[in-house]
Amino acid sequence: MNIDIFNGDADGICALIQLRLAFPVEAQLVTGVKRDINLLGRVSPQPGDQLTVLDISLDTNRAALLECLQNQANIFYVDHHFSGDIPEHPGLTSIINTDANVCTSLLINDYVDQRFSGWAVAGAFGDNLADSARLAAKPLQLSDLQLAQLQQLGICINYNAYGATLDDLHIAPGALYQQLKVYPSPFGFIAEQGVMYQQLLAAYDDDMSRAQSIQPEYQNHQIAVFMLPDEKWARRVNGVWANKLTNQYPDRAHAVVTHNNRGGYQVSVRAPLNNKTGADELCNRFPEGGGRKAAAGINHLNAHQLTEFIDVFKLQYH
């Protein structure tokens, strides 16, 4: 059996689209909302099963990975988040690169010899790696309009993944992947599935307009912390709004805090665009925190820890 395990955001989806266009197989899909990253623990592979794992932290999934290898599964693992030590095992093939300017879609783009680079560009834009996306797009010789379309599509796919549960989302990531995967180029999807694309774009614009009215809970020259209300739109927008704030204020680090369904907070952290380091270090100091150098998060922060988090945030980017 083939099992495709992937983050439900733009990077994970666009990486898998490229891989399966290049190497089509029938596979069971395992994915979820953006922050649902303990995905390997959901599978119980049989000896000889082929697992493809895209855009989820190896370190977070370490115990489940070792168990899958012990069960004699073959695993192809591609990611750009903090990994810790990578196990040496004949059943594991990995491409791990934690450089702040790399994402899983770009790693897969290289792996498949740039055959479906439009999707890699969209995935990189969705991961807020605009410079890397434009560099990957150069061989495609796109017009400014086409490049803007890929940027907006990547942002919309990414936006769709944010939420506490699938009920918060407009489209379940697995279902969205199924709609996208049949198109060798993202422009085919935009042309043929315009209604779905426009619906996502309109929802994104509506949620972002609500976020614009939120004032910082705390800010100085180095950081800003925003608290969003306990609403579905806020849970959907927290990551993409953090990206937008980072692009608007490239010398400042940002944290966007939303309520979760466990009585605490979920936090999206972005390092300054001009200093893409430290977000993973900051979030790893808290239970259920992790991510990458430029962008990271905490799935559950106890309510009484918010002041502590802001203090640590200040120290990280003083």
Helix and strand content put the structural class at alpha/beta
**What is the second-level CATH architecture of the largest domain?**
Alpha-Beta Complex
Radius of gyration over all CA atoms, rounded: 19 Å
| Largest sheet strand order | 6-7-8-9-11-10
Task: Classify the helix fraction into a percent range.
Answer: 40-55%
Portion in beta strands: 15-25%
CATH domain class name of the largest domain: Alpha Beta
CATH topology of the largest domain: inorganic pyrophosphatase (n-terminal core)
The description of the largest β-sheet is: 6 strands, mixed
Total number of β-strand segments? Answer: 11
Average residue-wise pLDDT:
95
Shape: globular
- Report how far the terminal alpha carbons are from each other: 50 Å
Total number of helices: 12
Instruction: Give the ordered list of helices and strands.
Output: EHEEHEEHHHHHHHEEHEEHEEH
Number of domains: 2
Low-confidence stretches are: none
What does the model show?
The protein has 318 residues and is α/β, with parallel strands linked by helices. It folds into two domains: 2-201, inorganic pyrophosphatase (n-terminal core); 218-316, Diaminopimelate Epimerase, Chain A, domain 1, CATH 3.10.310. It contains twelve helices and eleven strands. The protein has helices at residues 10-22, 62-70, 104-111, 117-126, 130-137, 144-160, 173-180, 186-192, 194-211, 232-248, 279-284, 306-316, and strands at residues 2-6, 28-30, 50-54, 74-79, 92-96, 218-219, 223-227, 253-259, 265-270, 289-291, 295-301. The strands form two sheets. The chain has a six-stranded mixed β-sheet, sandwiched between helices. Strand 8 and strand 9 (265-270) form a beta hairpin. The longest helix has 18 residues, at 194-211. The protein starts with a strand and ends with a helix. The model has no long low-confidence stretch (mean pLDDT 95).
